[in-house]
Design brief:
Blueprint: H1 7-55, E1 57-58, E2 66-67, E3 83-89, E4 92-96, E5 118-123, E6 129-137, E7 146-153, H2 154-190, H3 192-205, H4 221-269, H5 273-299, E8 309-310, H6 311-325, E9 332-336, E10 342-343, H7 347-364, E11 368-376, E12 379-386, H8 393-396, H9 416-426, E13 430-435, E14 441-448
Parallel strand pairs: 9-11
Antiparallel strand pairs: 1-2, 3-4, 3-7, 5-6, 6-7, 8-10, 11-12, 12-14, 13-14
Amino acid sequence: MIAVNSLRLRLLVGAVIWILLALAAAGTVLAALFRAHVERRLDAELAIQLEQIAAALERPGTEKLILTHQPSDPRFRKPYSGFYWQVDNLEGPIFRSRSLWDVALRLPLEASPDGQVHRHRISGPEGQWLIALERTVTLPDVPGAYRVLAAMDETELIAAAAAFTRTLVLSLGVLAVALVAAVAIQVHVGLRPLHRLRAGVAAIREGRIKRLEGPFPTETQPLVEDLNALLQRNEEVVARGRTQAGNLAHGLKTPLSVLANEVDRLAADGASQLSAAMRGQIATMRQQIDYHLARARAAASLDVPGARVPVAPSVAAIHRTLARLYGDRELQFAIEIPADHVFRGEQQDLEEMLGNLMDNACKWARGRIAATSRRDDGHLTITIEDDGPGLPSEQQGYALAPGARFDEKVPGTGLGLAIVRDLATLYNGSIKLGSSGLGGLRAELTLPAG
């Protein structure tokens, strides 16, 4: 069963619609051309009969007008056959075909004395419509003019057109079926590379192959190359994760050894100072765990092609969270982030960087925090400021180091700014600290713009 959003279904439906529209237009034009052709042939036939009747009109000597011969077509002699002729003078009909029996045709009131053939649509002897050709004839040395008319039943034309239309509809229907079948085959063949691509992705997911191999059409080759590049990037992420895990193990080795020794000694003599040493080593271990796991997470946060995140909604969500968290301090937030400012990367990474910076500002601010952004030359710079005590210029570089803390009274691990630096560097961005116009610290986070 084909899904509603299937590309195959869309192509087939689009092709069927255009085929039906094209064949309907062609059928309409062909039917109109055929009707016009039949009308021309019937008019030509009537014109010949008209000329025969006009040529048979004579007035020998002083005698009255006679018709030397009648049209040879037997349909003019069969009553109500649908083929009729008539000759009128100023007083009315003087000659008419036997097919009219005892009925006279009503000619248009206005005569056409120019001698040209004129076409009319008049009522027939049985109330049907007739196609009539009329010509005004004058004879030498004979006063007055005579109106000669030849007519045929319009149903002859309608029947011929209907028969042709039936044949045409049947032919176009067969052609439509053939075209739809051809389109279905073409779509199946054309989408075959996508099936190969899907099968290749399934094989990669199952671990049977590592890359998409073989030639692909020009239209899908860029997709194949991007997918292979993404697979290569994922391998690099795994490698970085392993490296970070090794760093974590190395960072924990010494504190764990010391902790083990202190615990052994504490068990041996119960000295109280060893309890304090144990707590210090435990704190060191936690710092190492937090920092190295954060770096491992940052190394796995490589930007995915096509990832775009609006900055304003993320800042607004962090603002709402921090406003509740620090609700007892009545902090004032001034946020000016344009709606069209977009970060080219992962939303989780953006929110982790901004969350650390804004949380740090809330911890140190006296009452005011500002968040602004600007876009320049493909980069987005987000600035977070506060009115706290700030940092001297000589300490601003050290503040980005892991575990850097300047006031133990303020809760935290000292890893927030280091994590922001690592994530920004991963995106080829940067974090810069400085003095704020509000009196406190200013953090400028530069990232790729979407």
